[in-house]
Amino acid sequence: MRKTNAFNHLIATWLGVTLLSLQSLVHAETDTLERIEWKKAPIRLELAVGQEQRIEFPASVKVGVPASVQGLLRTQSVNGTVYLLAHAPFGSNRLMVREFDSGRIYLFDVTAAEDGGVGHPIQIYVAGTSKTDKDSVTVSNDAGQVQPGYIQLTRFAAQQLYAPSRLVRDRPSIVRVPVARDPVDLIHGGTVQAAPLVAWRSNGLYVTAVKLTNRTNQAQILDPRDLRGTWLTASFQHHRLLPNGDEADTTAVYLISARPFEVSR
User: What class has domain 34-125?
Assistant: First the structure.
């Protein structure tokens, strides 16, 4: 009887080790980085519904999503990395991804299926170039320390709100400051509700992340010219809000100002 129990324990232990090894193998395969060279031909990409796909680019980019899949595909662009998540299957749709600095445009023919691809992280590269951040050095203070400029402040705020926790990093030169979270009259027309979420200060500049919610049953296009206040820059996380009640009826705008948010609006 003791031999049987010992044997059963040995088998259970072996199965546990085997399962752990298989899980580690699957995890390693999923994290394998696939490098794809951009050759001006659309890149075909199949998404698995409910599984996030990560795509790295040589520089920060903006993603253009066709209206036909805006309710089916979530896109987030953070510091040169794009995160795609399909909520439901859909046929081939073309995404246009544009680099902020160079203006280079990448094309993707994207589909989504319940049994889609494994979802390896993808790195897009252009032959003869390297991934550099042209805005990494913008302002230096009297002590010679590099201070973040408009682009870095906006990226930092977007990362704090949207990036996975493993990618969020604090920066000593960017300090969080208090901001009232009460709704404010920020956008002309009254169709979009605005409420500050969080604010930071760095070297005399302020960046405030403001939550925007569609109040109506119609889609709304966000235009920086409709903003009230005195802002140095305004960057929308998404430029279109779906009707109220849709999961895409909310986004954020990042406002940079020379004075605190309460004084600038």
Answer: mainly beta
